[in-house]
Amino acid sequence: MVHTDESCRKARLAVRDTLDVVGGKWKLVLLTILRRGKRRFRELSREADISPRILSKELQEMEMNGLVSRTVLDTKPITVEYALTPYSETLDEVLNAMEKWGQHHREKIMST
Q1: Where is the HTH hxlR-type domain (predicted)?
Q2: pLDDT for 109 beyond 80
Q3: Residues 41-61: b if buried by 16+ CB within 10 A, e if exposed
Q4: pTM for this prediction
């Protein structure tokens, strides 16, 4: 593939768009947890070790971008459950590649 100024500009824009949706410390962690199934708000907070305030903000952004769905359950007290949407599956290849790279990187660092 030949890299032109235009193709590099488009690539930078695409990467920036991706980071706008899944960037930051928590979104990819939350996606990884939710890949194992639905979670209630408190479960997510505990599993990710994230404060409720930050978790709420992250989940709102993920819902706005179509990655998670939010269901209010008719319980007392009311509980909220989060799940991945079918659209979130478009990130599977990215998440798998990041997991694989992270495992190799950890092994490399631990062996030095």
Answers
A1: 8-110
A2: yes
A3: beebbeebebeeeebeebbeb
A4: 0.86
Burial of 63 (0-12, 13-18, 19+ CB in 10 A): middle
Question: 73 vs 41, 85, 110, CA distance in Å?
Answer: 11, 18, 44
The CATH class of 5-110 is mainly alpha
Buried b (16+ CB within 10 A) or exposed e, 72-101: eeeeeeeebbbebeeebeebeeebeeeeee
Domain extent listing, the chain = 5-110
Question: Is there a contact between 93 and 86 (Cβ–Cβ < 8 Å)?
Answer: no
Q: pLDDT per residue over 77-93, tens digit each?
A: 999 999 999 999 999 99
- Rounded Cα distance between 63 and 56, Å, is 10
C-alpha 65/C-alpha 2 separation (Å) is 32
